[in-house]
Amino acid sequence: MKAIIVRAFGGPEVLRLEEAPDPRPGPGEVLVSVKAVGVNPVEAYLRSGSYPRRPDLPFTPGTDAAGLVSAVGSGVAVLKPGQRVYVYGAKAGVYAQKAVAEVSRVFPLPDTLSFEQGAAVGVPFGTAHRALFHHGKAKKGQTVLIHGASGGVGTAAVQLARAAGLTVIGTAGGPEGVAFVKALGADQALDHRTAGYLSGLAPDLIVEMLANVNLPEDLRVCALRGRIVIVGSRGEVTIDPRAAMTKDITIQGMTLWNMPDEDRALVHADLGRGFESGALAPVIGRSFPLAEAAKAHEAVMSPGARGKIVLIP
Ligand code: NAP
Predict the structure, then answer these.
(1) What is the pLDDT of residue 275?
(2) Helix axis angle, 174-184 relative to 152-163, nearest 10°?
(3) For the residues of 164-188, what is the DSSP string, one character each?
(4) d(CA 273, CA 289)
(5) Which residues contact 257 (CB under 8 A, 6 or more apart)?
(6) Dist CA 40 CA 154 (whole Å)
(7) Verdict on whether the full-model pTM lies above 0.90
(8) Measured between alpha carbons, how far is 87 from 64 in angstroms, rounded to an integer?
(9) Is the C-beta atom of 50 inside 6 A of ligand 1?
(10) Is 304 left (phi over 0), alpha (psi -120 to 50) or beta?
C-alpha cells in the first residue's frame, strides 16, 4: 500500500508518500480500506518534533480515518467486511491506504455521512463533546463562547452546543470567517482579529482553542462561577490568578487522549445519534490527495479555517 512516512522531524516536506507493507488484522482487530483521512493540527506539531511527546522515527501520522472494512480478525463479530466505518486511533498512523485498529476504535459510519465527514469525527467531535459536556458541564439554557469556531473542533462544538440548547457565540478570523460561523448556526459570531470584540459578553462556559492568546481576556469576560476549558494553546501566557479567584472561575485543561475507554464508547454512541438525526454533520473545508499531505499541513497551520481538512488516499 501507499502511506505517508516521516523519516526525520521537520517542515511539511518531510511528509513523503512511500510504499509500505500491507497491515493485517490480529485477534480483536479490524482492517480498514481508507477512503478519507482527517488532518489535525497535532499531526503538524508531531511532524515538526516540537510536541512534548515525540514519536519514534520513522512513523506514519494520523488518527482519524473513514473507509470500508476489508477484513476482521478472530473474535470480531460486530463489524463485517464491506461495512462503512470511521476509525479513531489505529495501531499505526492512518495517512495510508489501509489501517488496522482495535475493534473498540472502529465505529459504524452512519449513512448520513460521507467518508470525508467520517474522517472528521474522531478528534474534532470527540474533543468538542468532551470539552463541552464532560469538562465544561454545559447545560441547556447556558451561554457558551467557542473561541475558534471556524476550525475542525470549533465547527463540531457549535453544532453540539446548539443541539444541546445552549446559546452559542463563536469567533473566527475576518468577515468571511464570521459569516461562516453564523451560517453554521451560531447565535452570534465575532471576529477575533478585531480589538475589543469580547466586550459586553459574560459566557457561562468558554471553549478555548488558543489559550496563550486569549486566556487573560477569557478570565475578564467569563461569568461568575464560569468554566474555561483549554482545548488548544501554542505558547505561554501570563494571567492574574485573582481574576479567576474573584469570580470562582474554573480553568480546566483537557487532552482527548486522556479520555477513558468507557467514556469513548458513550461519546461515540451519543455522536452517532446526532449524525443519524441530522443534528450533527461534520463540515469539510478542503481536501487534498494523500500525496499532497505537505500542502494539507501548511493549510491546517494557516489562518482562515473553514471546517475540516481531509486527505484522499
Ligand atoms: P483548526 O481546524 O486549524 O482551527 C483552528 C481554529 O483556531 C480556527 O477556528 C481559527 O480561526 C482559530 N483561531 C485562530 N486565531 C485565533 C484567536 N486569536 N482566537 C481564537 N481562535 C483563533 O484546528 P482544530 O482542529 O479546530 O484545533 C484547534 C486547536 O485545538 C489546535 O490548537 C489543536 O491543536 C487543539 N486541539 C486540542 C485537542 C485536545 O485534546 N486538547 C484536540 C484537538 C485539537 P480562523 O482560522 O478563522 O482565524
Answers:
(1) 98
(2) 30
(3) TT-EEEEEESHHHHHHHHHHHT-SE
(4) 30
(5) none
(6) 12
(7) yes
(8) 6
(9) no
(10) left
Q: Helix-strand-coil percent breakdown of the chain, rounded to 5?
A: 35, 25, 40
**What integer pLDDT is reported at residue 189 of this predicted model?**
98
Residue 215 in contact with residue 208, Cβ under 8 Å? yes
Ranges of the chain whose pLDDT falls below 70: none
Q: Give the torsion sign (CA, 203, 225, 241, 126).
A: negative
Is the four-CA dihedral 250, 253, 256, 258 of positive or negative sign?
negative
Cα three-residue angle 192-196-197, rounded to 5 degrees:
40
Residue nearest to atom 39 of ligand 1 (CA): 255
- How far is residue 188's CA from residue 142's CA, in Å, rounded to a whole number? 14
**Ligand 1 centroid distance, CA of 137 (Å):** 21
Tell me, rounded to whole angstroms, the distance of Cα 96 from its chain centroid: 19
Q: Tell how far CA 132 is from the center of its chain.
A: 13
Closest ligand 1 atom to Cα of 40: 25
Atom nearest to 230 CA in ligand 1: 41
pLDDT value, residue 110:
97
Bond into 108 cis (ω within 30): no
Grid cell locating 248 = 470562582
209 Cβ closer than 6 Å to some ligand 1 atom: yes
